[in-house]
Design the sequence.
């Protein structure tokens, strides 16, 4: 009597990773906190480093930190199309955005800058619907409008009076546009490439694009006070390396338009951080604006029937 062969159950090649429901919200929260702290640190650094030099210092530190984290991790070779998207992502968001934002804050007051730059979430929601074919329902539009009204109140409460400075306004508009295009370039990359790899390559490409500011950085770093250098170090480690990596992690898992609207929470968080760092008590209009930003983001997360 022969014994029938035993059937060995097939083992899947790769067990899918199950993520807990709180992972993505925590990643978004840490990202927003890191990016809000950047505004406070940039203000603390003051004029010790020029816009281009500060952007280059931040990107060099961020690239080095991200490079260390990528050691020993899975690496996928980008395709020619992905290299083109990486170039656009790195040059525009990491390079142009940082320089333009630093320059705008140098020539405009913080209120005006926040009002102009924060058209970017609306631009991103509309562009994601057109380019990435993401669904744009009424709750997203309504939430974007409510949050933008909150940003206007925060800007007016913090002294938005510099719209006559055409150069500064153009720099802030440039920051908003390149942020939008940068995210549109980043989103398709995250369909195949790891988030950490995409962030590292973007930061490295942005640093290369900012190398013309190297002489200014070397010259200014010699005379800059230690707090300014520590501020540049913090900007590279936390808002750049940590913040952009967690942003990419979240962007892999949700639509770009909806994720972009969460950045409306950055101004009210920055107000609270400024209160803790500088003892600045926000004006009543700024508090109301922060509440509207929170309400708008909450409305945008409602799902249509």
Sequence:
């Amino acid at each position: 009597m022969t014994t029938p062969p035993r059937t060995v159950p097939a083992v899947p090649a790769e067990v899918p990773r199950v993520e807990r429901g709180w992972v993505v919200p925590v990643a978004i929260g840490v990202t927003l906190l890191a990016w809000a702290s950047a505004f406070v640190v940039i203000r603390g650094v003051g004029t010790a480093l020029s816009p281009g030099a500060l952007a280059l210092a931040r990107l060099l530190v961020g690239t080095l930190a991200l490079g260390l984290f990528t050691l020993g991790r899975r690496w996928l070779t980008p395709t020619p199309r992905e290299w083109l998207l990486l170039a656009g992502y790195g040059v525009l968001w990491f390079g142009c955005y940082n320089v333009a934002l630093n320059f705008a804050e140098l020539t405009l007051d913080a209120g005006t800058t926040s009002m102009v730059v924060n058209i970017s979430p609306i631009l991103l929601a509309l562009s994601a619907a057109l380019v990435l074919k993401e669904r744009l329902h009424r709750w997203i539009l309504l939430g974007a409008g409510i949050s933008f009204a909150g940003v206007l109140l925060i800007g007016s409460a913090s002294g938005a009076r510099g719209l006559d400075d055409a150069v500064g306004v153009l720099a802030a508009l440039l920051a908003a546009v390149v942020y939008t295009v940068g995210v549109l370039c980043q989103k398709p990359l995250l369909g195949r490439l790891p988030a950490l790899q995409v962030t590292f390559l973007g930061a490295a490409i942005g640093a290369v694009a900012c190398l013309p500011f190297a002489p200014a950085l070397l010259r200014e770093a010699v005379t800059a006070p230690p707090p300014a250098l520590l501020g540049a170090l913090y900007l590279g480690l936390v808002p750049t390396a940590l913040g952009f990596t967690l942003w990419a992690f979240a962007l892999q898992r949700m639509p770009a338009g909806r994720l972009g609207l969460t950045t409306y929470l950055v101004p009210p968080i920055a107000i609270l951080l400024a209160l803790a760092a500088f003892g600045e008590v926000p004006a009543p209009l700024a508090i109301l604006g922060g509440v509207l930003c929170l309400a708008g983001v909450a409305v945008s997360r409602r799902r249509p029937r």
Q: What stands out?
A: Confidence is low (pLDDT under 50) at residues 7-18. DSSP finds 13 helices and no strands in the chain.
